[in-house]
Amino acid sequence: MFAVGSCLASAAAGCACSCCASVTQQALRSSARAAWSVLFTFSLVTAWVARDFGSALLKKLPWVVRHFTGTDMPPDAWFGQQAVYRISMGNFVLFGSLALVMVGVQHKSDRRDRSLHHGHWLVKAGLWALCNMLPFLLPNGVVAAYSWLARFGSPFFLLIQMIILLDVTQNWNDAWVEAGEGDVRYFHALLAVTVAAYAGCVTIGGLLFHFFVPSGPDCSLNISLITLALILCLVLSLVTMHPSVRRGSLFPAACISLYTMYLQYSALQSEPRDYECNALGARLSAASATTLATGVLLTLVSVVYSAFRAGSNTQTFSTGGYEEPLIARHSRQLEEEEGTSAGLDGEAPGAARMERGGGAASGPASDLDGPVTYNYSQFYLVFALASMYIAMLMTGWGSQAGESKYLINVGWTSVWVKVVSQWVTVGLYCWTLVAPVLFPDRDFS
């Protein structure tokens, strides 16, 4: 009886493992973006751990320490930065190479789609692990050159974040306005979110004056930055309501204003912990390691989401035709018109009826000839730029002292990068409103 039970248990376990493997394989084939996001997340966590705990390992690599003597040995923070740069470099090389290889992929019948983008995940996982390890064999000069390259490449990732934010808020507004024509509750929801966003701006402004402008020291810099942020929110709202602006709406303006105040908070929070005007930083320094580690993980999650969202945005990365959703969902209208629903990663409705040369077709073979639904090369390019951004985020753009663990994105360089990003975001939004007025003959749709 025991032997029979053991056999049944082994069979059940084998079936479960086979089922899990089958489901995992199907999921990887369905959404390459989700799979790459998971691997990218592993790289971020590995870089964080290596930065804070990997100095002992790097000190044992002769090609890293051969230029230093016992008295000239740099602090552990330097070795931590080296670890971050090397992991970031490996991911940049991996995603940058894939971006180059995927140039020109237009149809699912392309072998690069089946073999490289959606298939052979065991091989690609091994390649990812190899790219994360090989940079540790490189000399310091190569890594130093990459760190300077990352300083210039990272702002492009921030720019992509801004463009995605502008696109999402405008599309959100247009969708709810259109839906409001049939259901007035959408107009009420737009009004509620708009008022809440402006209330959030005022609340954040008050908290910034409370935490970053203490009564004792001279904090004229923080006062100027907070005041300027509030003025920028007012300016972009006034530009939105100007009669000459064609597509002006308070909802996108409120969302951009809230993001502007968030960037201001993030910039001031990145001030050095010993800066006398950073009262919040002093409180965070006294917090438990668990609280700080939680904040670090939230920061990493936000970067992963931004990279995933930027690489998946169908407006920015569309190759024309069908716009795919991030998550599979059923649409009654699509089911009625096409007889199918959208998939996770490139299964366009009615794709089985399409051919390259036009005309109707049927059967699964013609589905392989359908067009890809987003630009693979640009998708990988976004992750390559995100890899650079992570190197700067974890090292304070190369200027962070790093004597305290769990400190990420702290330093004056980080402060000014975020302040400038705030100004660029407001400028981009105002340009999207003013450009059609200044150049009426051009198509800005």
UniProtKB/TrEMBL annotation:
Region: Disordered, residue numbers: 337-364
Specify where it is mainly localized: membrane
One Pfam family, please name it: Serinc
What's in the GO CC field? membrane
User: What keyword terms does UniProt attach to this protein?
Assistant: Membrane, Transmembrane, Transmembrane helix
Question: Coiled-coil annotation: which residues?
Answer: none
Query: Where found in the cell?
Result: Membrane
- Name the residues that span the membrane: 31-50, 121-138, 186-209, 221-241, 285-308, 379-399, 419-439
Its record classes its membrane topology as: Multi-pass membrane protein
| Signal sequence interval, chain numbering | none
Q: Which family does it belong to?
A: Belongs to the TDE1 family.
- Output this protein's name: Uncharacterized protein
Q: Which organism is it from?
A: Chlorella vulgaris
